[in-house]
Amino acid sequence: MSYNVAIDGPAGAGKSTIAKLFAKEMGFIYVDTGAMYRAMGLYFHGKGITPQDIDKIKEGCKTVDVSISYENGKQLVWLNGEDVSKKIRTEEIGGLASSYAVVPQIREKLVELQQKLATTADIVMDGRDIGTVVLPNADLKVYLTASVKERAKRRYKELIDKGMQVTIEEIEEDIRGRDYRDMNREVSPLKQADDAVVLDTSFMNIEEAAKALKELFEQRKDA
Length: 223
Ligand code: DC
Description:
By secondary structure, this protein is an alpha/beta fold. It contains 9 helices and 8 strands. It has a 5-stranded parallel beta sheet with strand order 2-6-1-7-8, sandwiched between helices.
């Protein structure tokens, strides 16, 4: 039997960094579902198909191929045979992913893929609907969050370090917009699962948060 750990929470709460550290320490596979929505956003936007073009999206979903693979423990994301792992890591694609993630057909396709992946190994999966929709029977569900100000501060630092020109106000506005869309869409909105444990990382560093996650998992595993 494989272990499934589900991590949900808003953009910039540190989900992927913390989940990656946890996965490395525990020998789990880390599945970043946001990357799959980003690939979908890249695909449909690139084709000039908007989130409102439901018929075209339905058609597109029949043929578009999004998959993931692992290289030295790192997740690679493939879009119709092209490695788009780097291309999807921009603020613009993050915003696009959030806009296309409201479309039920896109969600259905990705949820199926994610559920299949979860049966193959011990995994920690992060996203917005993992504990509520994708893995309702996960061994541990964590809702990872932090204040908007703190999340904006972290994202700002990350982007400045990458040499990008942004202001903290822009980032904060972007985060508020994404939170609103992710929490208020009709299908699978971001919300805390009833049986999820809340981990607020506003005053924690990465190591402290990963340690807290590990402790929660150990308690659950032995319960
Ligand atoms: O985790 P991220 O920031 O890379 O995700 C990008 C967007 O994808 C996010 O704003 C909402 C959407 N998403 C989703 O709707 N469901 C998921 N399981 C993961 C991401």
